[in-house]
Amino acid sequence: MNERVLVSACLLGRECRHDGRAKTDHVLQRELVANNFVAVPFCPEEHGGLGTPRPSAWIERESADAVLDGRDRVVTSDGSDVTRAFVSGAEGAHTLCRLHDLKRAYLKSRSPSCGVDDTHVAGTAVAGPGVTSALLRRHGIELTSIEGLRD
Q: Does 56 map to a domain?
C-alpha cells in the first residue's frame, strides 16, 4: 500500500497562497510518485477560514511556538489579528494527520503557516517554523521544507 503524506496544497498547483497563486513543484510531485507516496493536499490558512487572496501575514513578535502557547499573535499587513485562523488551520492539519495516520508532511518554506525551517516574524524572514509546522513537529510528524516552482 502507498504511504499517504500531507502536502501544502499550493505545491500541488492549488492557487491558495495569500497572493492567489500556486507554487507548483513538479520535482516534488515526481519524487512523491517515485517513493510511492500519495499526496494529501492541505492549506491550513484556507482551512482556518481565510479567503484567497488575502493580505500577507506574519508572526507578530516571537515565534510559532509562542503563538501556539497563547503568548504571540499572527497579524496581517493591514493590521488584522488572524491568530485564531492560523491555529485552527494548524489543528486541522494535525487532525488530518491523526485521522489518516500521516507520518510525514512536505510543506511550503517561509510560510507563516507551513514554513519548516524559516518563517516570517515582524515582517522579516527568520529561522524557525510556521504555526502549522510547529504543531505538527510537537506531534512527531516528519517535516520536509519545499520552496516550490521547481520544474
A: yes
